[in-house]
Amino acid sequence: MALKDITLGQYFPGNTLLHRLDPRTKLLGTVAYIVALFLAKGIVGYAVLLAVLAALIAVSRVGLKTILRGMKPILVIIIITAVLNLFYTPGAGEPLAAFWIFKIYPEGIWAAVYMILRIAMLIACTFLLTYTTSPILLTDGLEKLLGPLKAIRVPVHELAMMMSIALRFIPTLIEETDKIMSAQKARGADFDTGSLMQKARALVPLLVPLFISAFRRADELAVAMECRCYHGGEGRTRLRVLRFRGADVAALAGSAALCVLVGVLRQFGL
Amino acid sequence: MSQSIIKTQQLRFSYAADEGSVPPVVLDGVDLEIAEGSFVAVLGHNGSGKSTLAKHMNAILLPTGGKVYVSGIDTADEDALLDIRRTVGMVFQNPDNQIVANVVEEDVAFAPENLGVPSEEIRRRVDEALRQVGMYEYREHAPHLLSGGQKQRVAIAGVIAMRPRCIVLDEPTAMLDPIGRSEVMKTIRALNRTSGVTVVLITHHMDEAAMADRLVVMAKGKIVSDGPPRQVFRQVEALKSVGLTVPETTELLWQLRQAGVDVPLDALSDEECAQALYRLLQ
């Protein structure tokens, strides 16, 4: 797996309907979608959600390929969950296949398929959120949505700022990891062979310089931010002011409708 | 003479040391006045205290002795901190570590946002700053996909969007390739010439220092030479004794003089140097 394949938290600039929506709408919409995903029970529910996702991906012009590439790192998790569901779902009828202590029932196959779909769609819809929303807008939206928590002394602005800086430094740190890895490989380090223990041990000379440099970066960044008059969230204005538009209202109504629809379908076991 | 924007008086600085040991003195009585609108280069070897001096110019560090004034305000005055930082902007060596946002224009907007500037005004300042550094077409790009020189220009735009009267640049080209270096130097010069922003350039590149109106040479926490570049570079022996070299043109002429050839020492540009040699050969 090449490090550049990690697309977590990346943003692809664009000017589609999905890009233009208010980040708060997109955040709430994503939450609604995830709720719907966990409400879905039968094939009709999943089909509806899959169709919605496909439509959103098409509108976003991000490309199915990019989304699938982003899922590569979590493929293992998807497979493990699917396998566990396959073997451990008890069925009412005769098992389809049985060997030693394992029995596979038709219900198990369904559970595995649903689990794969559920995780993949969950990841895809959150990717869609970060791909179409600039991190600054995303954190802005989050800061606004969580704003009421300030009343109970939750440091909302600080949390939002931390999140946006973390997102900003992901590509930089990935680049750096790549560089350190190459430097270590050039001096004979081996990251790819050996037992799991040996592989883990090979990571130590990679992580130590990475951490040291991350701390140095943090220090320099803090000074640079102070030089640009950063003094917390008080009295800060924004380049882009968040505003709900007609499209946002429609999108929110759509999200709510989706939850209700999938909930109703669940009642009928579809 | 015009009014000075930065003024240090007997500035001394040493880092806190462990008990029992003598704290190392980084700045040892620096008296410096920087005139508004000027282009000053501070030249020095590693450990000469030049970066520490820069960090005193907008109250990142506070003097352990003496005073620093920014347009008349004592930098030790905590209530005036924002005023000081807004007057004197600072650009650092590593562009990666001073860019805050994932989108160029949002990064440039960071300082005016902190200052509470209204949104429409921020938009105007961001566009203007990006045009000044020639990065307007890249306003929607992600900074990590830009070249080093471009990133550093974004960092400069991020500072000028604050509308500072003075910019201090601490070795802004140290991590750049030759193309990036010349882009950044051109930007800095244009800022000084066309917008009248005071520029303090901390560097150890002789050719960059030669572009300034005034050159301050530091060694061991003290100013050892101060004057127009032509005048300073003539003191070849003095510069060599503090571990600095001189521009290649000056070096050539100096070597010739050492060999007993009569050439002027103050021909700084390639052109002037060539002229001097041409006259000699005639």
Automatic annotation (TrEMBL), chain A:
Role description: Transmembrane (T) component of an energy-coupling factor (ECF) ABC-transporter complex. Unlike classic ABC transporters this ECF transporter provides the energy necessary to transport a number of different substrates.
PANTHER family: SLL0384 PROTEIN (PTHR34857)
Example of a GO MF term: transmembrane transporter activity
Name of protein: Energy-coupling factor transporter transmembrane protein EcfT
Keyword Membrane: yes
Predominant location: membrane
Species of origin: Lawsonibacter hominis
Gene assigned in the entry: ecfT
UniProt GO cellular component terms: plasma membrane
Automatic annotation (TrEMBL), chain B:
Keywords: ATP-binding, Cell membrane, Membrane, Nucleotide-binding, Translocase, Transport
Keyword flag Transport: yes
Family recorded in the similarity comment: Belongs to the ABC transporter superfamily.
Gene Ontology annotations of biological process type: cobalt ion transport
Gene Ontology CC annotation, any one: ATP-binding cassette (ABC) transporter complex
Higher taxonomy: Bacteria, Bacillati, Bacillota, Clostridia, Eubacteriales
Membrane topology: Peripheral membrane protein
InterPro entries named in the record: AAA+_ATPase, ABC_transporter-like_ATP-bd, ABC_transporter-like_CS, ABC_transpr_CbiO/EcfA_su, Co_trans_ATP-bd, ECF_ABC_transporter_ATP-bd, EcfA_1, P-loop_NTPase
CDD domains: ABC_cobalt_CbiO_domain1
Domain ABC transporter span(s) in chain numbering: 6-245
Functional description taken from the UniProt entry: Part of an ABC transporter complex. Responsible for energy coupling to the transport system.
Subcellular location: Cell membrane
Gene Ontology MF terms in the entry: ATP binding; ATP hydrolysis activity; ATPase-coupled transmembrane transporter activity
Identification of the protein by name: ABC transporter ATP-binding protein
NCBIfam families from the UniProt entry: cbiO (TIGR01166), ECF_ATPase_1 (TIGR04520), PRK13648.1 (NF010167)
Organism expressing this protein natively: Lawsonibacter hominis
